[in-house]
């Protein structure tokens, strides 16, 4: 237990220092490839009916989650036959690969840099790399809001949730979480192609993120105080607007972010050329500005560090209680 939490701490530090170098093939891309290949095979096997696609979607989740969890477990098991040091090194590397703190900051700051250069088209393109909505018609405020919202949502999905799973069960649990989350990002759409096929993956993602999203929200409220932002408004808007989203989890951290920055987020957005009417999150106490992307990243880092500290303390306390 002590080595697993140390591996998580070192993995987090590696993520802050190195991020995700583009010249290294990230293992989550292998998970994405597995999803794509499995989807093609299942669509050939199962009938193109509602029941057929729902069943195929369940099989997809079982195969992808099973393989993605089993492979790291097997690697660590075989390493354990050699020595414990090798297990620790591999566990640290896996924890590092499962976190995305620096890459989330780096990608969102590309949007900030373009906006500061008055390059709106560049900003639209940069934000299109990290959001799922249409960005071609967004103005500066829209681009900024999209970047801030994705930092808020991915603080939970990309950092705190996998960190929590790894704190509980090491890298193996972390890979299980990433398998579910990656499936949701690839097939969890409510369009003609994935309405039934991706439903189970989307619902499972809602389930596994239910506790992490809410835990992340409260940790983010605490972090907003440490970051010198408005923790009072963060808590107020969280209590009021945390369900202002079709997803049961997405608005949890977006509400905190909106309150902490004292701006209004969300609202109507276009996806695949179709306008979706969505409620707003937060109060427009002040106008949205590009600097909010930097402020969002300050809150991102503060939340990540506070969360790591909290998870480590709790795990060590549990370990001490069990073995005292």
From TrEMBL:
One of its GO terms (molecular function) is ABC-type vitamin B12 transporter activity. Pathway: Cofactor biosynthesis; adenosylcobalamin biosynthesis. It is a multi-pass membrane protein. The chain crosses the membrane at residues 54-74, 81-99, 159-177, 298-322. It holds the Pfam family CobD_Cbib. Its main location: membrane. One of its GO terms (biological process) is cobalamin biosynthetic process. InterPro entries: Cobalamin_biosynth_CobD/CbiB. GO terms for cellular component: plasma membrane. It is found in: Cell membrane. The keyword NADP does not apply. Keywords: Cell membrane, Cobalamin biosynthesis, Membrane, Transmembrane, Transmembrane helix. Belongs to the CobD/CbiB family. Converts cobyric acid to cobinamide by the addition of aminopropanol on the F carboxylic group. PANTHER family: COBALAMIN BIOSYNTHESIS PROTEIN CBIB (PTHR34308:SF1). This is Cobalamin biosynthesis protein CobD. It comes from Robinsoniella peoriensis.
């Amino acid at each position: 237990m002590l080595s697993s939490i140390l591996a998580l701490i070192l993995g987090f530090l590696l993520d802050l220092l190195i991020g995700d170098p583009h010249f290294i093939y990230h293992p989550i891309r292998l998970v994405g490839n597995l999803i794509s290949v499995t989807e093609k095979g299942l669509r050939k096997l199962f009938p193109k009916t509602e029941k057929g696609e729902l069943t195929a979607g369940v099989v997809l989740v079982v195969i992808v989650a099973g393989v993605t969890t089993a492979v790291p477990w097997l690697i660590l098991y075989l390493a354990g036959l050699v020595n414990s040091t090798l297990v620790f090194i591999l566990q640290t590397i896996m924890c590092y690969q499962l976190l995305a703190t620096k890459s989330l900051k780096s990608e969102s700051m590309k949007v900030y840099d373009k906006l500061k250069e008055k390059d709106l088209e560049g900003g639209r393109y940069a934000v299109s790399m990290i959001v799922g909505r249409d960005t071609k018609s967004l103005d500066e405020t829209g681009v900024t809001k999209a970047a801030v919202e994705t930092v808020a949502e991915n603080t939970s999905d990309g950092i705190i949730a996998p960190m929590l799973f790894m704190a509980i069960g090491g890298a193996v649990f972390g890979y299980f979480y990433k398998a579910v989350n990656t499936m949701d990002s690839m097939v969890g759409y409510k369009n003609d192609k994935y309405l039934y096929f991706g439903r189970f993956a989307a619902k499972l993602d809602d389930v596994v993120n239910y506790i992490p999203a809410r835990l992340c929200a409260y940790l983010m409220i605490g972090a907003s105080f440490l970051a010198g932002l408005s923790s009072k408004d963060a808590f107020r808007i969280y209590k009021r607007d945390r369900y202002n989203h079709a997803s049961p989890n997405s608005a949890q951290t977006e509400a905190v972010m909106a309150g902490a920055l004292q701006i209004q987020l969300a609202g109507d957005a276009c996806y695949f050329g179709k306008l979706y009417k969505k409620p707003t999150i937060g109060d427009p106490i002040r106008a949205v500005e590009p600097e909010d992307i930097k402020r969002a990243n300050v809150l991102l880092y503060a939340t990540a560090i506070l969360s790591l500290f909290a998870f480590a303390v709790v795990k060590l306390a549990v370990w001490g209680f069990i073995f005292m």
